[in-house]
Please model this.
Amino acid sequence: MYKKVGIFIGIILLLTAGISFATLLEYYGKIIGTAEVSGAEFYIGSAKNETLLINKKSPDCGHFQLSNTSTRAFITEGDLGGIDFSYTPKARFSVRAKVSATTTPQDLTLRFGYIGDDGPIIICETNVSVGSQMDNYTTDFIECSAAPVGVKKLFYEFKGNCEDCKYIIGKCAGGFYTKVELSK
Model:
């Protein structure tokens, strides 16, 4: 009988201690965590309609062409409502490309910008030296020239830089995507 009473009292004491510890932990405890925040990424959508997707990878890995010194601009769909950036962004360009030309490599100009009340404004630009084989190219982050203001749409533009050249630009392959990534 004493043994049963002892076990019962022991269980009661353990429960009381557990509840007391939980109450103390709730009062004095602190939860610490971290979160990783990344900037927006802009992927090539439809090559036919020249769309730019925000944080959404293209469902297909097709390609498109540029001839000579022509340009193609891929633009976000819908109106972004005239948003203002509170910072001047940095941009990292990624492109999968090759060029057919008498001499290679040839430069391909990559531009990122926005369309506002005053029309299109380019805020980041760089050149990538493209060879004759389809390859992946990624730049370092580049400081843009201004904080976008009154943004209605964003765009990623490609411009050829040589006569008698044909550029082939792939949207993706093997987990690599042609895109622009923004950062603070």
